């Protein structure tokens, strides 16, 4: 029998319950009102008094992904790359049908909002040797299909359109990947995954999507930020200068952009049953249907 908890939507309430159970299991203090730092594919809670961030994955079915994140984080630490480190606790811990991991707490520093900072981190990441342990090949489509298969409260014609668009994009994506050099990539390289510590050192965080793939994939989010989200052209030019390559001039950019935009839209779709998310989802659907590459999107 399948575990219903594992399939349950991740909410602040049930994530907090798993966090408290996991903390008790490893001897950390159970703090019922621990601040929630982020709620998305994972929930992150801060325990600054003991220097720990507790990360609750959506379900225990994500075991391979969670194990990979821990391996990547330890390897990056060994390479001296600016990153966040898991604690010494034996982990992951299963709690309430979810997997929980424990990471060093990084005190807030000056926000690293410059895309030039991200470019410098990516240049350093891409200069590293490929890890000496297996990593999955870059493949953003399974999670998109899963979202489309399990979503509720979204118009059937929208789900059908996205499913067909994903199927078409997947063929183009796989052809491009098969013809491109593949190395270590972060997989979700945007400014939201840059954290600045108390000494103002920028750290690249969140290793859930780390994979082996074409390096231009990590440059696409910043290009899309210019195309869709109003990032000033001068900022993008600085990003290109620091990294040393303009992905928008690469022949594979249209394919990678389409794939990334479908991923962003199916992610938003999960919470688009009402309010601002529903309005933004409708806007994105209109632009995708029309092939409008200049329509302004809004980050939520």
UniProtKB/TrEMBL annotation:
Gene3D superfamilies attached to this UniProt entry: 3.90.1200.10
Pfam families: APH
Domain Aminoglycoside phosphotransferase: 52-250
Protein name: Phosphotransferase enzyme family protein
Organism the protein comes from: Streptomyces salinarius
Lineage, broadest ranks: Bacteria, Bacillati, Actinomycetota, Actinomycetes, Kitasatosporales
């Amino acid at each position: 029998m399948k575990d219903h908890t594992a399939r349950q939507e991740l909410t602040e309430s049930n994530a907090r319950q798993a966090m408290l159970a996991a903390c008790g299991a490893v001897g950390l203090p159970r703090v019922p009102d621990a601040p929630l730092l982020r709620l998305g594919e994972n929930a992150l809670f801060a325990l600054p008094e003991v220097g720990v961030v507790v990360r609750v994955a959506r379900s225990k079915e994500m075991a391979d992904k969670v194990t990979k994140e821990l391996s990547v984080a330890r390897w990056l630490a060994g390479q001296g790359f600016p990153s966040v480190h898991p604690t010494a606790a034996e982990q992951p811990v299963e709690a309430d049908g979810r997997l929980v991991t424990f990471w060093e707490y990084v005190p807030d520093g000056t926000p690293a909002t410059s895309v030039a900072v991200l470019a410098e981190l990516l240049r350093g990441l891409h200069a590293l040797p490929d890890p000496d342990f297996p990593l999955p090949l870059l493949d953003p489509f399974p999670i998109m299909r899963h979202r489309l298969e399990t979503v509720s409260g979204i118009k059937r014609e929208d789900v059908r359109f996205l499913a067909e668009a994903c199927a078409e994009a997947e063929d183009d994506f796989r052809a491009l990947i098969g013809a491109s050099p593949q190395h270590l990539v972060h997989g979700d390289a945007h400014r939201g995954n840059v954290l600045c510590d108390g000494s103002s050192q920028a750290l690249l965080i969140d290793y859930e999507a780390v994979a082996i793939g074409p390096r231009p994939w990590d440059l696409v989010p910043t290009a899309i930020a210019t195309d869709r989200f109003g990032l000033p052209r001068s900022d993008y030019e600085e990003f290109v200068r620091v990294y040393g390559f303009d992905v928008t001039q690469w022949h594979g950019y249209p394919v990678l952009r389409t794939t990334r935009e479908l991923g962003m839209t199916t992610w938003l779709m999960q919470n688009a049953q009402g309010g601002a998310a529903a309005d933004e989802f409708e806007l994105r659907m209109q632009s995708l249907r029309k092939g409008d590459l200049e329509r302004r999107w809004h980050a939520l």
